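Methods — Computational structure assignment.
A single polypeptide chain was analysed. Its primary sequence is given first, followed by the predicted tertiary structure written as structure tokens.
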Amino acid sequence: MQPLFVVYEDAELVAIDKPAGLLVHPSALDAGEERSALKLLRDARGEWLWPLHRLDKGTSGVLVLARSQQAAREGGRAFEDGHVRKRYLALVRGWPPERGMIDQPLARDPELPSQGQERIPAVTRFERLACFEWPFQVDARHASSRYALVAAEPVTGRRHQIRRHFKHIAHPLVGDTTHGKGAHNRAVAQWLGATRLWLHCEWMELPGRPRIAAPPGPEWKALLA
């Protein structure tokens, strides 16, 4: 595996461009996977690091880690209090509105059935950046298939929030094996020549620091053109 690319560093924080397919830290949900961003960074740098937030294994982009427990506490509070802005790029099924806000409470644990769980507030703003109509058939009612590139800014930070919110408005993310549609995932993977969850953390703004950015990888080129 290629070395992890550091996109920002100061006395308290390190930020990397996490590749899709890499865990942030070991997880019981993926017990067979031994690699993680945290372990690779600790081994490469020889220092202990603490992640300030989560990125799903399939999500790429900005991942911020603290270099001390004090920095981890302060950074964690900034995330919890909503003082961190973050923007993601996502490829979704269909053409959502040009812009909107999804204000939909979510069950606390996405790994468990929603019924009976506490619902916690969750808000995501989004803007549609581009529309695509590609010449392949997934639905027998339509000769072509529609997708859109969106920018999403989660105001809150719930697990799988963007994925669950876009499923809620009937525009699930492409490549999402949990909340998406397998037929669309397979068709787009063949069309674009890449199999992945199409979700990338493009930038973050933490209090008192410059914007930390990670450009999307080459597989996004056709969508950004």
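Note: The chain has one domain: 5-219.
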